Amino acid sequence: MRWPRALGLAFVALLIAAPFGLPAFAMTLLTELVILGLFAMSLDLMVGYTRLISFGHVAAYGLGAYASGYMLLNTSLPLPFVVILATLLTGVIAIGVGWVCTLATGVSFAMLTLAFAQLLYAIAFKWTSVTGGSDGLAGIPRRAGPMGLTLLTTKTGFYYFALACLIGSFLLCRKLVASPFGAVLRGIRENEAKTVSLGFNTRLYKIAVVAIAYALGGLAGALYAPFAGFANTELLFWLLSGQVLIMVIVGGSGTLIGPILGAAFFLLLEHQLSSVTEAWALFFGLIFIGFVLFAPEGIWGLATGWVKRREKPLAKVRLRD
Amino acid sequence: MTIRPRLTRRAVVAGTGAAVASPWVWTSARAQAGGMIKIGMPLALTGPLGSVGQQQKRGAELYAKLQNEKGGILGRKIELLIEDTVGNPATCVRKAQEMVERYDCRLLTGITLSSEALAIVPKLAEWNAIFISSDNGDGRLTAESFVPNFFRANTSGPMGARVVSLYVKQAKIKSFFALGLDYAWGHNSVQVFEDEMKRLKVNFIGKVFAPTGTKDYSTYITKIRQSGAEGVYLVLAGDDNNAFLAQAAQYQLASKMAMLTEQIELVALRAVGDASVGLIGSARYAFTIDTPANKEFVELWKAEHKTVPDTFEGEQWQCMKVFEAGITKAGGIEADKLRPALEDLTIESVKGKVLMRKCDHQGVQKGFAVKVVKKEGFDHPIPEVISTFPAEQTTPPCNKMTYED
Prior knowledge:
The complex is a heterodimer. By secondary structure, chain A is mainly α. Chain A has helices at about 5-20, 25-50, 60-75, 80-100, 105-125, 130, 155-180, 180-195, 200-230, 240-250, 255-275, 280-295, 300-320, and strands at about 135-140, 230. Chain B has helices at about 10-30, 50-70, 90-105, 115-120, 125, 155-170, 185-200, 220-225, 240-250, 255, 265-270, 290-305, 310-330, 335-340, 390-395; strands at about 35-45, 80-85, 105-110, 130-135, 150, 175-180, 205-210, 230-235, 260, 280, 345-350, 350-355, 365, 365-375, 380-390. In chain B, strand 6 (about 175-180), helix 7 and strand 7 form a beta-alpha-beta unit.
């Protein structure tokens, strides 16, 4: 077994065992980390594998959160069905978003994604009857079911549900990037003109990856609403788009696992720094600058680099033997 | 030869990791403090409403300091757990949850924005926690969004709007335009004011909302001027209020129409100086309120801070006094004991008598209309009380945001 897989399995085992050893608040934080990790990983499909820089990925998160929150408040659908429907809805809407945004490339693509997110933000503010306006939707329940199943209404049950969504999405994304589809995405990332000359309709591939990334971002949002118990316009604010991009960069783009670690690092650092000082944003900025300058490959890149450096001398010793 | 320390990648990562981990160690000491009365304050200490959060923090800190010098409440010292939320409901929920689950803190106050409070209140029953608001204006918190573990010691947005409308009745202004902050409190207060104006047969021409953090109000001022109204009603706070007042002075808005505001804060008067002179509005609290308890509070404040207290410093002080009276009456801090003790509790406060009525947990209290004036002895304009309205007139009926008379 190669060490990354062993490390990954050990990490998953730790996450599964967490509720048995961690206190209540640590579990709350861990559940949020899992959800944010899923959100950051969804963006990595676009940024890390296709080099489609999005400044508006918050649209997926917010859309998923509002859709899930609205359904949980206004229908009797069980939580898993609501989450699936919200994910699908976000993915379907993202096909339109992808179709429009992929008319442009580079910075223009990024600005179009931002414009779409801002449009949703404005709609959420004004469409008070559905979105609750500036107050948002409060008191979102974790509805029981299906078939009277109450496990998901508990904190631990919901954590396992979120964790299952993260692991399932990770496996799906890993399969996707390792498939011929993923090879085309990497082709677009490295040299789109060459990929086109090989006969691929790259725009269709880009629309598809936007739809998949948004659907997974929507899944994260759909989980966040019943987790926090509310959905409001902050979940569609552009600032969160910037933050999730930082999570991807700090964690290590193009690795899937890196952004999950980046999200964990971001949330813990923000949470802890703001507990210590009111000038936390200043220190946070300095740490981000430090990462960009000293560890551009991100946390995951640092970890893998460290293991490789340790492996090399051992390999030399074996050769000498 | 000198050895220079090298800033390696490993050192940077190790340092950052240590920084992330260390507060867990520091804060674990906080959780171990036993016998204290822990009061959690998730506050917007930074961001557009940071000045409001800072006032709440100072108000609570002075109270805790003085009360702890007297032995605390029921012989137990008060410990404030203060955290910055940046005014973000998601962060606020996380911080409040940490206070409850990690530090076993079941008393909450602060929570600067109404949007944060609206996200928190559905969780109070699950947390078995009591939240006494010191500044949340949104009327729905004691109406359609009311939950049994929520209490409001402060003047609400509808109560502030009501004071302005009672003043308008006296001043006979015939038409109004309104500008509010584009979130829960702003919308709610403008709506109440609009209803009040319609009932008074005053022409309500229109309204506009600005996002929090707006720096340039010129387009809004143009809209207000073009409306042709005789008066403009403002529902602004913090940096937004300062930015608007400064720009309104440049555009000489006060010479075109009467400017009435839902709340007047010293921090804004200090920031914009003479540009605020003549402004009339409701004051949730003003250091010039003439009550014995307020005179005593102002002296205590001056002794500590060498200046007079501002709106939310006074409101937070009043809120802490409600906590004190409730905990003393209940004989403890458990939610199931404290809740009934707070219901129909009456205290003599800085604003006079305050009754925490049982039906919707709103603090029934007087309303104050103030005018910004220049006065000798102060290097900035101050709010002077020009009318005091009785609590029966300013407080809405139970579980309502609108008035019937």
